[in-house]
Design brief:
Blueprint: H1 2-27, H2 32-41, H3 43-53
């Protein structure tokens, strides 16, 4: 039972960070799909990298 709870917690954290990274990528004109996937599999690292990268002024947001 505890392994099921662990999986559910990990999925919830992954989805939450994926949505946060997607929102940040949208506001920073970065690839939405890429950062959503990275945010799910590497939650804290992706968030930190997005904060460091900043805004991409060379292109519009892509899907």
């Amino acid at each position: 039972m505890s392994s099921l709870v662990s999986v559910i917690i990990y999925l919830a954290i992954g989805v939450a960070f994926a949505l946060i990274c997607r929102g940040m990528a949208r506001s920073r004109n970065r690839s939405l799909n890429l950062w959503t996937i990275l945010g799910f599999f590497f939650p804290l690292i992706s968030l930190i990298v997005l904060l460091i990268l900043g805004k991409d002024d060379s292109k519009a947001a892509s899907v």
